[in-house]
Amino acid sequence: MVDYWQCGVSEIIRNMSDVFDELRALMTPQRLLHDPRANGEGVAVCVIDSGIERAVLEAKHGSAVKRIEGGVFTAERAEPWPYEGHQSTPHGTTVADIILTQAPAVQLYSADVFGPTGSCEVETVIKALHWAYDVWKCKIVNLSLGVTEQKLQQLPKRQQLARAIEVGYFKDVLIVAAAHNDHPFTRSYPAMFAPPLLSVNKRLFADPLQFAYEQHDQIEFLAHGRGYLGPFAMEPATSWAAPHLTGIVARLLSLKPTLKPFEVKTLLYWLFNASEPEA
Question: Where are the alpha helices (DSSP H) in the chain?
């Protein structure tokens, strides 16, 4: 009797293994990320950064690029100032260019949180996050910026930022946040709020659609760390890794727009494992 029971359990385990092997065989980077429909169509992406120089991207990417909308956020105003198609610094344009290179059919929104002052407060980032969720209805928010741990010693500020990230998660918004360039020696937020978002460190990959899942000190993903446009684009940086992962996520969402954040994270994990050779 025991032998029959053991045989039955072994058969169930073997069948379950077969099912997951079949799923893994279906969910490969080649099949999903290189699907012709995986171009970002129907996906709104907010770039919270230093603004985007719209004409530069239109000149590079041509008429296919959708008209970039946005706003300039400040600590003093509840609503953003109008976006007139210009950047405060080139950083945001480099980030946006990477996203368009990865997913050319996305709808970009520029949330300039630096403006003419060249500085940014946590409260301004929080305003931009809520505007991206509630007004622009973005599905992805790219944060190629961070606030160092030392600047978030005040617990209320850290809690407000964490709450804003959680609100996005429960509104089914994917937030992609760059780790600090000197991570883990310098830790910055919101990337350290790893579970509700996609935290990204840098690595150089042969293919910009390659990425890795490598959990280390609260940062989970690695993506290609070089850009293509701008004065510092060729310098490896987490700022360029985040939009590479944003573009990959936009490709997935253009295939299945209803994916929730935890589903996207799980799918990325599966895709990474599918791309790894069997041990």
Answer: 2-26, 29-32, 54-61, 91-102, 122-134, 155-170, 238-255, 261-275
